[in-house]
Structures are given as structure tokens and as C-alpha cells.
Amino acid sequence: MALTLLQTRFVDSYLGEANGNATKAARLAGYAAKTDDCMGQTGYDTLHSPAVQAEIQRRTAAIARASKGKVLSAESLLALLSEQATLEVGDILDADGYPSVDATKKGRAKRHVRRIRETRNGTEIDLLDATKARELLGKYHGLWSDDTVVTVHAAASADALIATVLAVLQDTIPDADTLDHITSTLLTRLAGSTSTSPG
């Protein structure tokens, strides 16, 4: 069964920019939905269409055949990032302390060189970004993220929940006036909801 134009765009997006996120792939493909929930359902339905599933399987199989084992495993990628993150200047210097093409071609540095060029002042060696490698490793290990997540346990008291929310607000909102406004609004609404809830 042939794919529609929207389904083809969905598969392109799903395997590309959306990175396996069906909702994002549906949005990028051009599907229309009134709410995010509707877009999520559209993405889910499109992803589970037999024709779309067959095309995704066909394309991923073609990619696997073309790569012939050249795709890094998660462990290999983490090892390379770790090596890049811990690379030191000494890994590219010769015995006299100067940047050395020979030293760079041996050992740990060889996989992390962006560019080597000769200049009037000697050899210039640019390495891949160690800071970016550290950032990616930190995200992988859950040391930080782009989102603030508050976990609430069912046994937590209302006071503990309020204290947690206020602490997160204080950490994320630097403007004191805005923080005061949000805090007072939150406390007012909480007071109103607790006074009307059944006792």
C-alpha cells in the first residue's frame, strides 16, 4: 500500500528530526490538530498504521545494510565520549612539549582531532570539544537535564508538597516580585481548594 504525502513526511520526520517521537513527527509532517493531546493521538495512530510501520521497517533495514556494522553501540559511543571528555593536552605533545602530529596519531588523541595544520608558528592541532562530551555524558548519567521535575510521593503531606514547590520556584525564578506574585497566587488557590474540599 502506498503512503500518502503526509505519511511520507511523517516517516521522514520520525526517522530524522523528530528522533523517534511520533507527536513531533506528526507536527513536522504537517498534520493539523487542535490540542497537543490530539496531535499525540494523531502521531500514535499514524505510527501504528500498517503502511507506515512497513516503510519504517524498510528504511531502517536499508540503513542497517548500508552501515554494515559501522553503527556504534551505546557502550562504544559512551567510551568514545568518555575518552574525548578526558583528553589532555599532554596527549598531543611530543617529548619536548610541542604539539606533535606523530603524538596525535598515536594513542588516545587520534580519534578526537578535528584538524591539524602547519602554520608559521608551528603545528596547530584542534581537538573535538571536551566540554560538549562532558555535557552529553552528564545528561546520560542524569546529572542534569533541561527540565525541572518534581516527584511527589502519595504519602507526602500537603505542607511538604508546598515546601517542595516553593523551593523549586525559588531556584528557577530570579525576580523577587514575580516569585512573590506566583507564591501568593499559589497559596491563595491552595487555601481556596482545601477550604472547599470535603472534610
Protein traits:
199 residues; mainly alpha; Arc Repressor Mutant, subunit A; 3 domains; two-stranded antiparallel ribbon; 9 helices; flat
Overview of this structure, please?
With 199 residues, the protein is mostly helical. The protein folds into 3 domains: 5-67, Arc Repressor Mutant, subunit A, CATH 1.10.10; 75-132, no CATH class; 158-196. 57% of the residues lie in helices and 7% in strands. The protein contains 9 helices and 2 strands; from the N terminus they run ααααααββααα. It has helices spanning 5-15, 22-29, 36-47, 50-67, 74-85, 101-105, 130-140, 158-172, 176-196; strands at 113-119, 122-127. The chain has a two-stranded antiparallel sheet with strand order 1-2. Helix 5 crosses helix 7 (130-140). The longest helix is centred in the last third of the chain and has 21 residues, at 176-196. It is flat. The chain starts with a helix and ends with a helix.
Give unreliable regions as ranges. Answer: none
- The dominant shape is flat
Tell me the radius of gyration. Answer: 26 Å
Q: Approximately what portion of the residues adopt beta-strand conformation?
A: 5-15%
* SSE class: mainly alpha
Oligomer class: single chain
Strand order, main sheet: write it out.
Answer: 1-2
SSE pattern, N- to C-terminal: HHHHHHEEHHH
> CATH superfamily name of the largest domain?
Terminase, small subunit, N-terminal DNA-binding domain, HTH motif
Helix segment count? 9
User: Quick check: average pLDDT?
Assistant: 78
Q: Please give the CATH class of the largest domain.
A: Mainly Alpha
At the fold tier of CATH, the topology name of the largest domain is: Arc Repressor Mutant, subunit A
CATH architecture of the largest domain: Orthogonal Bundle
Number of domains: 3
Number of strands: 2
Distance between the termini: 59 Å
